[in-house]
Amino acid sequence: MSVEIGQPVADFSATATGDSTVTLSELRGKQVVIYFYPKASTPGCTTEGGDFRDRKTAFDAANTVILGVSRDGLRAQENFKAKQDFNFDLISDKDENVCTLFDVIKLKKMYGKEHLGIERSTFLIDKEGKLANEWRGVKVPGHVDEVLAAAEQLNAAS
């Protein structure tokens, strides 16, 4: 079962960078952007994370927390965050619990071979914990600006 717009997102806890645990219910009262990316330290994922990093002040002004998620281990996430100077937490979802909740594991083809991997996707959760918007099959250029505009609009409406 996947999350649906207008419906509450099931609570979850996940291991994150900075020796922390992120629990969705503890973020109530703030909007939350959760973006899923295939692999730490790859070109598209680095660009996308950098775009979120560079606009974090604007997301903060829109009362919105940013969380990045991939199946990479915590050490890879910590290295990625440090190397790219990301100013938000990255979640290590090796057991795919968060990925499964948001239904982002898809059959992909690379070099003619099929494998299961993360479909680049972003979700915007409102202050009450309901899914407000989703972007699936994301193309990186311009994406973060679109998410920021949606977060600002949602924040202004509440």
Describe this protein's structure.
This protein is an alpha/beta fold and about 160 residues long. The protein has a single domain (about 5-145), classed as Glutaredoxin, CATH 3.40.30. The chain is about 30% helix and about 30% strand. It is built from five helices and nine strands, in the order βββααβαβαββββα. It starts with 12 loop residues before the first strand and ends with a helix. About 35% of the residues are buried.
List the helices and strands and how they pair.
Blueprint lengths: L12 E4 L3 E4 L7 E6 L6 H12 L1 H6 L2 E7 L3 H11 L4 E4 L4 H5 L3 E6 L2 E6 L2 E5 L5 E6 L6 H15 L1
Parallel strand pairs: 3-4, 4-5
Antiparallel strand pairs: 1-2, 3-8, 6-7, 8-9
Subunit structure: Monomer.
Catalytic activity: a hydroperoxide + [thioredoxin]-dithiol = an alcohol + [thioredoxin]-disulfide + H2O
GO molecular function: thioredoxin peroxidase activity
